[in-house]
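Figure S4 source data
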Amino acid sequence: MTLIKSISGIRGTIGGNVGDNLTPIDAVKFASAYGTWLKQQRTKDNYRVVVGRDARISGEMIQNLVMNTLVGLGIHVIDLGLSTTPTVEVAVPMEHADGGIILTASHNPKQWNALKLLNHKGEFLNGAEGQKILDIAEGANITFAEVDDLGEITKNDAYFDLHIEEILNLDLVDADAIRKANFKVVVDGVNSTGGLAIPMLLNELGVETVKLYCEPNGQFPHNPEPLKEHLGDICKLVVEEHADFGVVVDPDVDRLAFIDETGEMFGEEYTLVAVADYILGKQKGNTVSNMSSSRALRDVTEKHGGSYQASAVGEVNVVQLMKDTDAVIGGEGNGGIIYPELHYGRDSLVGVALFLTHLAEKKMKVSELRATYPSYFMSKNKIQLTPELDVDAILEAVEAHYKDEEVTTIDGVKIDFAENWVHLRKSNTEPIIRVYTEAKSQEEADQLAKDMMTVVESIAKK
C-alpha cells in the first residue's frame, strides 16, 4: 500500500497504516495544512473553498473528513458533491472562492484516492506552494478555530449545468452546427462522474447518447486509464450501435479519448491534435504540450503558422508555459485539453464540444478525420520501482549513455533521435519510471521502448 506526497497533492491507497496510506488521519492532516496555507495567503474575515469528488467508493468518506477539517479551521465550504476536476476548477472563480479541493485519484484503480489542490484561480498549485503545504503538514503548526468561528458547509448541485452553460457560450463551440449533424455517440463513463456530466453536455447539444458504464457507483468495470487495451467493450458497442464515435473519460473527467466509427481508437494523443487543428484554423496562435506528448501537435501547429513548445510533464507546467507563450490551445498527450478561453485546466467537456464542432464543420467520418493528421505511434511502458533503486543515478547514467544525441533533462531524460524519441521520467503519482517512446510505426516504437528498458535494467544491475 502506498502514500505519495508531492507538490501536486497527496495520493494514496485507502486503509492500512497512518503515514503509509491515505488514512482518515492523513486526509485530515493534509486538509489542515492546505487550509492553514490558504489563510496565510491573505487576511480576511471569511474564507471559502470549493470541494467536489469523483465517484470512488472512498470518496464520500474522504470528502466529509476534508470538508469538516476545513470547517474546523473556520473556512466555509461549497460542497459540489459528485463532480469533475474541471467542474471544480470552473466553480472556484465563479464562487469567488479562495481555493478548491478535488477528491480523486484520476486514472488510478479504485483503491486509490487523492486530494488535488487548487488556488483562488481554480488552477493547480505551483511547486513552491505545494512544498509549503507539505512543510506545514510535517511541522504540525496548525491552529483551529474557536467554536463561534467555525465554518459552514453549503451544498451546490448546479455546477454541471453552469459548467456546460459556460462551454455553450464559447465563440468556437457551434451548438447549432452540432445539432444539425445529428450525431450518435457512445459514452463510457467508467462508472464515475463522467457518466453524469458528458451525457448532460451531449443532451444540450442535441446528440443522441448511448450510455456505457455511466452509473456513478465507483465500481470501475475496467482499468480506468483510457488506453486501448482497456476499452474493448466500447469499441464493440460503437460498431453495434452504428454510432458516429465513442467518448471515453477517466474517473475525474480531465482525460479524453475517442473511438472512431469502425471501433478503432482515434488515438489518445490525437485528441489534443484534432482540437488544436480546429482552434488554430479559426485563430492563429501558439500551442503547448508536455515532453511526453506526440510530435503531431508540433506538425499541426506549424502547418497553421504557429509555434509549438514542450513543457515538463505536469498540468501546472503546461499551464505556465501556455501563459508564457500566449498559447491559444494546449494540454497533454494523454487526452487532456486545456482551452484558456474557458479556464486553465484539462477539461474533457470542452474537448468534446470543440471536437463535435470540428467534426460537424468537416462533414467527414472520425476515421477520415484521423487520416488527415501525421501518423506517429507511441508505446507507453512502466518500470516498477523498488526501494533500493537510485532513480536519479539511473537517469544520469542514461543521459551519459546517449550524450551524443539530442538530450533534454528538464523532466527526467528525453532523447530525440532523427525519426523517433524516448522519454524516461519518475512518476509523481505512482512508484514507477514511465518509459514513453514515439516512432513512425508501432513496431518501431515498441522496439525502442524494449531496447531502452534493457538499457535501464543493465544500468540498475551495476
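Figure S5 source data
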Amino acid sequence: MSRPEPVDLTISEALAEMREGKLSSADYVEAHIERCEKHAGLNAFVSHDWDGLRQAARAADETGKAGEGLTGIPLVLKDNINTTTLPTSAATGALRGWTAASNAPIAEALFAQGALLGAKGNMHELAFGITTNNAVTGASRNPFNPDMIPGGSSGGVGTAVGARLMPGGIGTDTGASVRLPAALCGIVGYRPTVGRYPGSGIVPISHTRDTAGPMVRSVADARLLDAVMSGTRSSGETADLKSLRIGVPKPHFYDDLDPGVAKIAERTLGLLERAGARLVDVELPDIAALNDAVGFPVALYEFKVDLANYLAENGLSLTLEDIHAGVASPDVKGVMGSQLGDEAIPEALYRQVMSVERPKLQQAYETCFSENGIDVLLFPTAPLPARPIGDDETVAHNGERQPTFTTFIRNTDPASNAGIPGISLPAGLDSDGLPVGMELDAPAGSDEMLLAIAQAVETVLGPGEAPKL
C-alpha cells in the first residue's frame, strides 16, 4: 500500500510518524497550509497566520521533541476560545480584531503539550445557531457539498477537520455545537460531562450548558485531546462490545427521520448486534417536554450574566448593548435583542427551572440508565443530513418545512441540558453523499467509559470517509 498523504493522517498517526523520524512538523504543517489555501472557498477560518505557523513548526522540529505529547500538531480552535496570538471575536462585529491577554486554560493545556495554533475556526455568530451562516464572517461550507451547511455553531472547525484542512480542533457545545457539525461533516465530535474541562477564557452562552469538546477524525484522537484538557490519563482501553448493553430510545430519537438517516441508523444497529452488543429498547418518557422546560430559560438567562462577566474579566469596556449593535446575523440579532428588553427570561423562572425542571430531566436519564441496566444510549445525532446554506428559518424535512434550529438539535439538546456526555461518530454517507452521524450518550461523569465504548463502536463502523474535494 502507498504511504498516506500527510493530510490523511490522524493526529495519533502523525505523532507516531514524527516520533519515528518519518515526518517533520514542518512538512506536516506545510501540507495542511497548502490544502487550506487550495480550499479557502470553504471559509473554515476567521483568522490564521501561516508564516507564524510555519515558524512554530520549525521550532518544534528543532527541539527534537516533535511527536511527543502533541508537539508539532496544528489545531484549529473555535473563534470563541481565547488565544494570545490570534484574535478571539466569537465571529461577531463588536469583537473583530480583539486579542486576549491570556490563553483560555484549555488552549494553554494544549499548547503546553506542544500543540500549535493552526487557525481560528469560523462559527455561527456568538455561537447562537447551528448553520454557521454568519453575516459578519460569511458562511462556512460543508466539505461534502459546498452548497450545504456544515452545522454549527462550531461549523468552521467541522469544515476544517472534515476537509482535512487541519487534523483536529476544539469546538464548544451548548446544545449541539460540537456533535452536529461533526455529524454533518463526517468526523468525531465529543461533548464531555459539563465541568470536565475548565470553562474560563471562552466567550460564553451558559455556564450550566457550555463545554468545549474535541472535533477530530478518530476516537483515539478525541481521547488524546480529552486527556490533555481534562488533566487525566486515558486508559486507552477499548470496551468489549459483547459485554455491552446499548439502549435504543426509538420514541422521540428515531421518530420522523430522513430516509437516508433512517437507513444508516438501522444498518448501524444491525452491525452492532452482529458484533455481539446487546441492544435494548428503552424510553425516556416525555423527554421533549422535559427538555423544552429547561433549554431556552437556562441558556437565555445565563447568557446575559455570563457574557457580561466575560467582558469584564477580559478588560473589555463593552456593554451587552454594544455587542448587540455589532451583531449582523438576523437570527442572532433577534434572540439577543429579546433578552435586552421586556421578553427577557425573569430570574424567578430561571431559579424554578434550575431547582425543579432540570433535576426532573436529569432524573429521567438516571432512571433510564439504571432501570434498564444499559451502558449507553445510541441514536442518530441529527434527524436529517446537511441542508442548503440560506435555509436559516426552515428546512425541508420529510415533505414539510420545519424550523431549522429545533429540527437539527432535537436529538442532541436533551443530553446537553442534563449535563451528560455524548459523542457523535461518522456512520456512513446517504444516497446524496452527505455524512450521517450516530451519537452515544452516557451517564454524567462516565466519560472514560463512554470513550472506551465509542472506540469499540468505531471498530465496527469504520472511520469517516473523506470528501472528494
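Residues 347-372 form the longest helix (26 residues). The mean pLDDT is 97.
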